[in-house]
Fold this protein.
Amino acid sequence: EVMGYGRLCKQLLNVTIDKTMQNAEWLERPLTDELLEYAIKDVEYLPSLYRELCQTIDRRKLWNTYDSRAKKLLDPEFYKPKIDKILKKMSYNSKLTSTSYLPYFLQLREECAQSLDIPRSYCASDQEIMKISQYLPKNDAELSKLNMDNIPLVKGNFKKRLFDLSAGVKEM
């Protein structure tokens, strides 16, 4: 089970951490004095936690486990999306699974999300991707019928790539 910083501090150090500002707007600059103070206090117990966790790992002889998991987390391949896993997680109907086009559009959505640095669902929802893979829009007129004018996947250079992909898979 994954344990957050606040819970770790409480369990290992018997310290309650104020987490009221964790969902504040941290991208706005300059940071307010209140946010700066919160950030400073939020990391205050990291050295103590580090020492406590190292002692626990030593005591339980878990350094090999720690090393192998850390190595996995440091490998960039670990963070690359696996389209087959995304397909399994999606709740799609059997009519759409009969087409082999969906993975191509999922890959395009992944590229869009990474390029724009936003969650994949913000580029296009699973339902929108399934709809696109079903109707294969090749131009603005066909796309407008799907009522998806506001999603990032159908804007800028991704729109052209979407049209090219639709045309390409239609020819298959």
Remarks:
- The first helix runs from residue 5 to 13.
- The CA atoms of residues 20 and 63 lie 34 Å apart.
- Confidence is low (pLDDT under 50) at residues 92-96.
- The chain has eleven helices and no strands.
